[in-house]
Design goal:
single chain, 242 residues, alpha+beta, eight-stranded mixed beta barrel
Length: 242
């Protein structure tokens, strides 16, 4: 008579198969969920921004600047850190601290200030102020003590992103960007187009590599390198063309 395998053995095999399938498809599931949530955040940001712009035009019967106090505060901040040679760019706490509190300007605290689009690697991420753990998990984050994302002469907005985290790519494929690729940054006021001009591998404490360059309008993308190791940093420099 043929001996039957015990029930526990079949259960163990089944659980093993399920665990294997979970490990196989977990990154794809995480990526799909994150991309859906990010797209929703960006859609909501666009709707709220457009509603605020429509209300402004209705109230003023013209094309007055949206959130003028916030724009001026951002412009002032960019000017100050340039004149002070970004002396506050001293470490992790400086990177993590938002330059401004959006709640001071009638916006929800911790909400996005725009979004990043990189067609060459099919990437779109909301942008937050302050490269802290919360914001880095949500999208791309502006390093404190670097220029705020409004563009302008002698500015360098540095956006940090994970090189993959919990199965989500984030800035995983930045190394695929080439000189000439386009990067777009949409703020409350404008969509600014930048072009990749240079890439570099730097040490984590190489602050000089991300400083403002006088006279230039730059967007710098920053992530860990090599992938899964992260002992260095990959930097992609982009210069504004529109």
């Amino acid at each position: 008579m043929r001996r039957q395998n015990p029930v526990w053995l079949w259960l163990a095999i089944l659980l093993g198969l399920l665990a294997g399938l979970w490990l196989l498809f977990y990154p794809q599931l995480q990526t799909a969920t994150f991309e859906r949530e990010s797209a929703l955040v960006i859609d909501q940001w666009q709707e709220q921004t457009e509603a605020a712009r429509s209300q402004l035009q209705s109230d003023t019967e013209g094309n007055s600047l949206l959130y003028p106090e916030l724009y001026q505060a951002m412009a002032d901040y960019n000017q100050v850190i340039f004149l002070e040679h970004q002396s506050g760019l001293t470490g992790a706490s400086a990177y993590e601290t938002p330059a401004l509190e959006l709640s001071d300007y009638g916006l929800e605290s911790g909400s996005p200030v725009g979004y990043l689009t990189i067609p060459a690697i099919d990437l779109e991420l909301p942008i937050y102020l302050g490269a802290n753990a919360v914001n880095m998990a949500l999208g791309a984050a502006v390093l404190g003590q670097t220029s705020l994302p409004i563009g302008g002469e002698s500015t360098n907005c540095v956006l940090a992103g994970h090189r993959g985290y919990r199965g989500i790519p984030y800035f995983r494929y930045l190394d695929q960007l080439e000189v000439g690729d386009l990067v777009c940054l949409t703020s409350f006021w404008d969509t600014m187009t930048y072009q990749v001009v240079e890439t570099a591998i730097i040490q984590p404490d190489d602050v000089d590599a991300i400083l403002i360059r006088e006279g230039q309008d730059l967007l710098t993308l920053l992530t860990c390198h090599p992938y899964t190791v992260g002992t260095q940093r990959l930097v992609v420099y982009c210069e504004r063309i529109d």
